[in-house]
Amino acid sequence: MSIPPLAALRAFDAVARHLSFTRAADELGMTQAAVSYQIRLLEERLGTPLFLRKPREVTLTERGALLARPTIDAFDMLREAYSAPSADAVSTLSISTVPTFAGAWLSHRLGKFQLDHPNLAVRLETSDDVVDFAREDITVAIRSGKGDWPGLESHFLMPIEYTPMLSPELAARHRLDTPADLLKLPLLDRNDPYWAVWMHEAQVDFPESYGRPGLIMSTDLHEARAALAGYGVAMLMPRFFGLELANGSLVQPFAQLSSMGRGFWLTYPKGRRNRPAIRKFRAFLLDEIACEAV
């Protein structure tokens, strides 16, 4: 089958990104009826509906979802190719990442990046939700996982490795000769799966049932605060709390680090791979991480 008409694909790209015929029409400078006509032509050509038109929302059909990602990527590449060479002169780099990575590692480095690139506005947003690049105003995302997200370019940044950490005052009140001695202390967010992994690798019998309520925090940053205050032992990434370890406000009683094969990755749609702002930010992140290893 030959490639469908560009006008129909352009309309499909806009509706698939916005999931709205009205917003797609506004973006394209067309009437809603004209956009609907182009989508109908495309659906007739393919012999299958691409959208489910409900009273208050528009959703992609299974076939529509299958075609949306490559179509959006293709138009992203075209937009990139035809953008002005100086398009980065006044531009915004919007970054989405999880709160812990932002607060413990990224936020205090972004000022340096922005100073190095004064014509580039930088916006940081934090969320545990997975970014939908087709619908959200986000340029890049830094997420945890294995880097196998379909349709996205992924660059490995650092491994996710955890170990127990606590305040020196709490450690001084207890003998921590072996990993099993940690079970005598309050464990912050005991249901965190890294506790079971770390204890198993340390050959400690770690019962699933705790027997009493525990303190559960929403992020590693909150757990670290509780550990600093002496309320218990937190399962944390030493890489994120190197300053606290260096000044002695937190201690790491055992050298063992545990991983579940996951890492932090810089991700963005493949069609954006040549954007100057993304290339600059990727190089900056990799340089910062390389400097940590020295």
Biggest sheet, strands in spatial order?
4-3-5-9-6
Tell me, what's the shape? elongated
What gap, in angstroms, lies between the N and C termini?
A: 55 Å
CATH-defined superfamily of the largest domain: Periplasmic binding protein-like II
Number of domains: 3
Question: Would you kindly provide a written description of the structure presented here, covering whatever features stand out?
Answer:
- The chain folds into 3 domains: 6-82, Winged helix-like DNA-binding domain superfamily/Winged helix DNA-binding domain (Arc Repressor Mutant, subunit A, Orthogonal Bundle); 91-138 and 266-293, 3-Layer(aba) Sandwich (D-Maltodextrin-Binding Protein, domain 2), CATH 3.40.190.10; 163-247, D-Maltodextrin-Binding Protein, domain 2.
- Helix content is 41%, strand content 16%.
- It has helices at 6-18, 21-28, 32-46, 62-82, 99-116, 168-172, 193-201, 220-228, 242-247, 276-293; strands at 51-53, 58-60, 91-97, 120-126, 140-145, 152-159, 163-165, 234-236, 263-269.
- The protein has a 5-stranded mixed β-sheet with strand order 4-3-5-9-6, covered by helices on one side. The chain has a two-stranded antiparallel sheet with strand order 1-2.
- A hairpin with a 4-residue loop joins β1 (51-53) and β2.
- The mean pLDDT is 90.
